């Protein structure tokens, strides 16, 4: 698995924040899931600080999907990990609305991640809840 730098993690975390907020409920559980993602890549950094930066970017950016370019350049393993974290955030409230589903379709399209695999990850996470 290739490594993501701190800047990339912040950008991808902003995407996770966006996924969390798209249903207009941004829970502490969702924040914890995003911090888990941050910690899985940046063990020695302060996840709370990075989350704050990501929230800042998310609230000021209409260009959020630009962060998909970072993801697109990475290995399929990293893409898969990011898709998995996005789904964890989205299904954490036990519902997937049309906006969340649409966001995932758009992200998968932009990073060239197979829809079928995206659906399998989602099902696997739902079944393991």
Describe what this molecule looks like in 3D:
The protein is mainly alpha-helical. It has helices at residues 6-21, 28-41, 47-60, 67-72, 76-91, 98-110, 115-127. The protein starts with 5 loop residues before the first helix and ends with a helix. Helices cover 71% and strands 0% of the residues. Helix 5 (76-91) crosses helix 7 (115-127). The protein has one domain (6-127): TerB-like (Orthogonal Bundle). The longest helix is centred in the first third of the chain and has 16 residues, at 6-21. It contains seven helices and no strands.
What is the 3D shape? globular
Terminus-to-terminus distance: 26 Å
Query: What is the structural class?
Result: mainly alpha
User: How much β-strand is present in the residues?
Assistant: under 5%
Q: Might you state the CATH topology name?
A: TerB-like
Helix content: over 70%
Number of helices: 7
**Largest β sheet strand count, sense and barrel closure:** none
Rounded to the nearest angstrom, the radius of gyration is 13 Å
